[in-house]
Design goal:
2 domains; about 375 residues; acyltransferase; two-stranded antiparallel sheet; alpha+beta
Length: about 375
């Protein structure tokens, strides 16, 4: 089996950073009233700026595939160009359409010749699953290089017009026209952007990172759906997909808006996260002492202190000086967040040969977790 190295890492963040007070101007006001939930959610998540693929006039500037293609192009130079790519593996939770696949659309924008494409579906873990496919393809000798991406363009899913039909429907039937908190919650959490990594079988570049191992765990066998889009959650906890609703109901129930079961999230996301982290560490016989940098993808700083406490409660210890986060600056970019964190760490000048980096990505959709363990070589 071949060794696998991350030899280049790049990002693309669209337009200018958007501060908290400008969010509603960008995404739009629902039912003509400013959100009461926005300030509460922002106070908890502590995000200061994020990026949207929307210009100052509210026009879309990039779709998701274009964001990912821009990040891939940022990897390239005169010594490695896009025509050298052998495998393109792209993860996202917000594809631009159901078909064709996300990676096929990215490939279409790159126009870089015949190659293999892979499009893992899912939420935040899709970015890590894209990375794992590239990792396994190189490790098994199928290809000598792979480009993997994680990207989101959720701003278009969060715009006010997505919710207008539902608000109008609620008014028609004389219900109080306030959007459910579970639906509004994610409007103030999510951001646009993309990250890309070049994987190769040789340790090239200034600070290559060897991928020692990757692991994934799912708790869908015992937990209900928590984050979803394209369906509605029923009282019994099951998910009814959009395809089983009449077309005239899709807007009335905001079926294509992203939603979060906040209660289920709070009860499970940290406990299962630390439990699965322990499984991965025990399987590969590492301890906290074998981690120099801990990069957990968290959707909100609300979870930061609680995650630390849960780690301690389950018998581990990861002091704050090992943590590396950039949520406050770039926001929650879902499948792209771990790429953006690692990109910033790699270009920070902090890393030295022999450092060990532990990546943790949770996905609340049905509670899944992905891990990677890297060595600076």
């Amino acid at each position: 089996m071949k060794n696998v190295y991350i030899t280049r890492i790049a990002k693309f963040l669209p337009n200018e950073p958007v501060e908290n007070e400008a969010m509603e101007e960008k995404l739009g006001v629902i039912n003509g009233k400013t959100s009461k939930a926005r300030r509460i959610i922002l106070r908890n998540n502590q995000i200061k700026t994020r990026y949207y693929a929307i210009d100052k006039d509210g026009n879309v500037t990039h779709n998701n595939a274009q964001l990912a293609a821009k990040a891939v192009e940022a990897l390239c130079d005169e010594t490695f160009n896009k025509n050298d790519i052998e495998l393109l593996s792209c993860g996202t939770s917000s594809p631009d359409q159901i078909l064709p696949s996300h990676a096929a659309m990215v490939h279409g924008f790159l126009k870089n010749g015949n190659l293999e494409v892979n499009s893992p579906s899912g939420a935040c873990c899709s970015g890590m699953n894209a990375l794992k496919y590239g990792y396994m393809a190189i490790k098994s000798g199928q290809v000598s290089n792979a480009v993997c991406t994680g990207s989101e363009r959720t701003s278009s899913w969060m715009k006010a017009d997505i919710f207008e039909d539902e608000v109008a429907h609620l008014q028609e039937i004389e219900e109080h026209p306030i959007l459910a908190f579970n639906k509004e919650f994610l409007r103030w959490m999510l951001s646009d952007g993309a990250g890309a990594m070049l994987l190769e079988s040789e340790p090239k570049g200034e600070s290559p990172l060897k991928i020692e191992w990757m692991e994934g765990y799912s708790y869908a066998f015992e937990l209900d759906t928590c984050m979803y889009a394209g369906g509605d959650k029923l009282d019994d906890g099951s998910l009814k997909p959009w395809s089983e609703y009449p077309a005239d109901v899709w807007g009335k129930k905001s079926l294509f808006a992203m939603k979060q079961d906040v209660k289920l999230l709070g009860e499970n996301i940290l406990q299962k996260g630390v439990a699965s982290m322990k499984l991965a560490m025990e399987k590969h016989n590492i301890t906290e002492d074998d981690i120099d940098y801990y990069l957990p993808h968290i959707s909100s700083y609300y979870f930061k202190e609680n995650l630390y406490n849960e780690i301690e409660r389950q018998g581990l210890h990861l002091p704050w000086e090992k943590w590396f986060l950039n949520l406050q600056k770039v926001g929650n970019v879902g499948a792209g967040s771990i790429y953006l964190m690692l990109e910033e760490l790699v270009h920070s000048g902090k890393l030295k040969k022999g450092d060990k980096i532990f990546l943790q990505v949770p996905e609340s959709a049905r509670f899944a977790y992905s891990y990677a363990y890297l060595t600076v070589v």
